[in-house]
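Lecture 7, part B: from sequences to assemblies.

Below are the input chains for today's worked example.
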Amino acid sequence: MSFELTIEPLGQCIEVEDEQTILDAALRAGVWLPHACCHGLCATCKITVLEGEVEHGEASSFALMDFERDEGKALACCARLQSDVVIEAEIDAEPDAEIIPVRDFDGSVQHIEALTPSIKGVVIELDEPMHFQAGQYINLEIAGEACSRAFSIANAPADGRRIELNIRRVPGGVGTGWVHERLALGDRVRLSGPYGCFFVRKSLPEPVIFMAGGSGLSSPRAMIFDLLAKHDTRLMTLVYGQRTRAELYYHEEFLALAAAHPNFRYVPTLSDEAVESDWNGLRAYVHEAAQAHFGGDFRGHKAYLCGPPPMIDACITTLMRGRLFENDIYTEKFFSAADAQQVRSPLFKRI
Amino acid sequence: MDMQATKKKLNLKEKYRAMTRDLDWNPSYQKLEDIYPYASYEGVKIHDWEKWEDPFRLTMDAYWKYQAEKERKLYAIIDAYAQNNGHLNVTDARYLNAIKILLTGVTPLEYMAHRGFAHAGRQFPGAGPRVACLMQSLDEIRHAQTQIHSLSNYNKFYNGFHEFTHMFERVWFLSVSRSFFDDAVSAGPFEFIVSIGFSFEYVLTNLLFVPFVSGAAYNGDMGTMTFGFSAQSDEARHMTLGLEAIKFILEQDPANVPIVQRWIDKWTWRGYRVLTLVAMMMDYMLPKRIMSWKEAWEVYFEENGGALFKDLARYGIRPPKWLDQIAQDKDHISHQAWCTFYNYALAANFHTWIPSEEEMDWLARKYPNSFDKYYRPRLEYWREQAAQGNRFYNKTLPMLCQTCQIPMLFTEPGDPTKICYREADYKGEKYHFCSDGCKEIFENEPEKYIQAWLPVHQVYQGNCFPEGTDPTAEGFDPLAAVLRYYHLESGRDNLDFEGSEDQRNFAAWRGQATTNA
Ligand SMILES: Cc1cc2nc3c(=O)[nH]c(=O)nc-3n(C[C@H](O)[C@H](O)[C@H](O)COP(=O)(O)OP(=O)(O)OC[C@H]3O[C@@H](n4cnc5c(N)ncnc54)[C@H](O)[C@@H]3O)c2cc1C
Ligand code: FES
Ligand SMILES: [Fe+2]
Ligand SMILES: [Fe+2]
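Predicted structure of the full complex, as structure tokens:
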């Protein structure tokens, strides 16, 4: 049994399992709530329950006073839902976020192609359109496995019926293995979405830098197409890296885009291309390429990072050394089971 | 006409802003430099105070309400504890000596923190940090008061708790924690917030609080434990302030990075030195142990701190200096400190003892690389000597480190059998240090540290005798005079636990409370 939790001021709605705390559910859904001790002592995670019932669990009577309980306060790290609940938390509302409820969608596979030896492009035609923001992701149900996997949408929203995914095969991976070996043209699929808060903050005027590696190109590709389709004139730079030329999918497409749009710069880079090949672009990791392209100074930009966690980590370090900090950096980490459970310090909230 | 008033309710952030920063104004007839005279001499460059993100959003009206209820609860428990003679429920009367250290060595620091934050809260040109520091300043005075009240109950029954403020300013080993905080509050506002707000509250506070608070819980001391919980509910606010301060300073200007780095090096080392007292308390003074000092260091510093310094590396900050030495020292400092106090038990306000066989076995298990090899033989030898009537009390005074003011009791990195001495010359005088860390800290600011009030020097200069003492008089006993100056009663407040009045009283009262005799 599970209840629904709405988090104000974001208006975001998430599912919470029976034994799950509000904090755990929110963090897992990608909503950052303030927290520190995680066991009811420090009161960092205090929230207001606007509607519904919660159970306070092991909340300390010093961290959550009796009068606060009466006033509808709760500690997110201990509180469990007894009904559907609406809370207000100390988080900043995102003026550019659209509040789109997550729903299930059915569709059929319209196109499959091998973009690289390990990445497949899958196009799904939904029966009904899905409204989403460029950069968000969906959860694709893996037939016969009773599980789903997260993949970012690689195309701009347009009419909402077309969902393009770029799916990299994880060796031994259940879900990505199924996509690569079993999924065929015309198959019926089910997915839920849209998820995530990785979207372009259009209300902020600064020029943007996209940094993408591996299959992490998907979100930036959607974002760039969306901005250009809406005639956005800000300067945007895509720093895009793969290991070899054979893996540099959509390269021609971006070259053409850069030629057609003076405000779009394209910086491709390869980290493991054979020395004797005819590639005459950069040979470096994404963060090194960005460092070189911007001369190590990123001030005055907004950066959007998407890809495997080690790449994101390296890019954040490079950006911060170039004096672009947390408030100007947005990330989507392509977490998999392998990356969960790392010790983190509370120095940074979002990155 | 009926107008719909659609005034949107302010969210927490807006409310906080309205009640704090929006109360600030731009001065028109005084210059900013004159209003905030300490804001620039440390070399920290701030370009935009508006970038300060309020780390928590608590307005004054809400603050009073919270703290008032915390007080109500805490005092209800302290009263009940006092009425039910809760002090007789502690595991063993030796435990009392751990809280003597807490009251005399730590409680005054809460008060110093109160003063330091009040000062910083006045001196920062940004309204955000001013309000945050002011609130912490109020928290700290509450901590000082409630700690004193929690512990005052023990003062009714046991020795060594009396006149802790008098002792704090005089007793030799208390100058260690006192000089640490003096150093911080006499620095500029930026160094203060990095030293106390960040290095101490964030990096080291768990190592101070967990041992005392869990130590209290493990040893049946509900009063101190409840105080601990009540203070811990403020601690998160303090840590977030420290983190925000360091991020803000580092992001404002690249020139701030090396300045902050030096402060992190300095204050981690200074804080670590002060924690020697806690290390000894954990390993030797708690009848029921929580974990060893070494384990606590590994969990709270090496693991948690490791994750933090990995994140700070992004700003170009490296982990604090001398960590390699600290890593070696963790096998030794608690033993070396206890051995020193065992020697100088004549001049302390608490009792010492030789650990029992069972306790020595515990120490040997927790310190397989050091205890049996270096410290057990020493302790056994002293036990033997005491049994033969030769209990040795050291009556000469030790050389102190000019920076941390700890006696020269630490050993050379890599050689636990050799005392570590360092020295530096400054303006024709020689200064002595316990370590490379303390020496370097001195060399960065010699003018500050040559002013240090070193208890041993002061005794030798004749400044630590009660007024009217004549040191030239026939049969003058300098140590007795120093103890009178400290307000310590020899034979009662000091010496071994075995045979002490505390031991006798506790046994008698507990006997009355638990038997019909
Ligand atoms: C928000 C989000 C968006 C994403 N978008 C995309 C996208 O657009 N395209 C895309 O290709 N992927 C994307 N991913 C990553 C994708 O979800 C994972 O690769 C996928 O869940 C792996 O599922 P699986 O069933 O194949 O592997 P599993 O069966 O879950 O894992 C198989 C084994 O491999 C290990 N493993 C899994 N992943 C890795 C890894 N990366 N490195 C090393 N070992 C691993 C696991 O620990 C396990 O032992 C996204 C992830 C997130 C969180
Ligand atoms: S995170 Fe500390 S009380 Fe919830
Ligand atoms: Fe405090
Ligand atoms: Fe020292």
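Note for the exam: Chain A has three domains: 2-88, 103-195, 208-339. Keep this in mind when comparing with the next example.
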